[in-house]
Write a structure and sequence with these properties.
- The chain starts with 10 loop residues before the first strand and ends in a 15-residue tail after the last strand.
- The chain is of the alpha/beta class.
- The protein has a 6-stranded mixed sheet, covered by helices on one side.
- It has 5 helices and 13 strands.
Length: 267
Amino acid sequence: MTLRDTQQYDWTIVQISDTHLMDQEDLEFVRMNPEQSFHDVIQHIQRNQHPVTALVHTGDLAQVPVEKTYARYLNYMQQQGFPYYQVPGNHDDATYFPFIEQQDQAHIVHYGKWSIILLNSAVKGKVDGWVAQQQLEQLDQLLGQYAQQHIIIACHHHPFAMQSHWIDQHKLKNTEHLMDVISRHHNVKIVLCGHVHQDSCNEWHGIQFLSTPSTSVQFKPFSENFALDEALPGYRALYLNDNGEFKTEVIRVKLKQPKINLEISGY
């Protein structure tokens, strides 16, 4: 039974992350077929979360970031029947990435009394993240302009340390700048991120900072060095009410393919 069964919510936002799609749908990523696991997750969402208000993909859409990878993703998502948005990750290529508009802007979409602000934290040629000053200024303006809205912010890189040394070297490097903007306002409820291939929740000033599992391979929590985890792929569902109340859960999806090799030492 999901949280959705316990109460009727006004909106359902689904977060997926780190699909790591290849340029050909039959190729493997870290000895898993990311295309198949991505499709398995979307099919689970369609069966169990209908109706979906919108889906947000928090980056590393592509492992092979070429035009045809993104075109195949868009073609698949256009068949799903709900709005979808994506922000880039460190593995993505801004030249081909399907930004909602220009890549150097913060963007906002509205669903009732809730709004989602999309930020680009990816920096060309770097693994770690940074939200540019221009976007921070736009975020500040949007939070002020929509002060009566309940706000969800979505970016790729994790603002809070995961207590895994290897991935925390590549977190959002100007978290304090983001927090400074958020702290001037009182309408941010949730900050979503990807990048870490695992579920986490940190709370700061009443705001929940949430990461979600990858639709492909999972990273082992609290690991000094790169390590994979046996946990299943998954997604996060956010059930929202117009009065600002919300619940969230992470749902894991059983795959149609064999278990991954945990001995792999990097990607």
